[in-house]
Amino acid sequence: MWFVFYVLILLMLHGLIPYWWWVMVVPLVFFMVWKRGPWKSLMLAGSGGGLVWLGYSVYTYLGGGQIIASRMADMMGIRPSWLLIIVTGLVGFIAAAVAGLSGYFIRQAMDYRQGK
């Protein structure tokens, strides 16, 4: 249930905020508040961020972005161009996973300082 809420927040902010940093701020704050273990924080945050970025890159690719995707793939040396979609999803996964794990560790540090 919370994972769906987390992904919906990511999707909503993806449409409202044109910058990339939201994929790191939302998991950081979300996993500071929502108590989970380190492995769950890493995997839930990463899968949510990767899923949103993967879905948006597929949407963009199918909506006429094949030309720019093929040019970007040529510049990066990635063949075929649709493989760039998977790389984009992986970047979103890694960024959100690191942020979610950081949120968990910040929560642990705050609990430790308070003596819990």
Kindly list the characteristics that best describe this protein.
116 residues; mainly alpha
Characterization of this structure:
This protein is mainly alpha-helical. It has a domain of 79 residues. 84% of the residues lie in helices and 0% in strands. The chain contains 4 helices and no strands. Helix 1 runs antiparallel to helix 2, helix 1 runs parallel beside helix 3 and helix 2 packs parallel to helix 4. The mean pLDDT is 87.
Topology (elements, then pairings):
Blueprint lengths: L1 H15 L5 H12 L4 H39 L6 H32 L2
Low-confidence stretches: none
Q: Can you write the helix and strand succession as a string?
A: HHHH
Number of helices: 4
Structural class: mainly alpha
State the distance separating the first and last CA atoms.
27 Å
Structure, briefly:
The chain has helices at 2-16, 22-33, 38-76, 83-114. The chain has 116 residues and is mainly α.
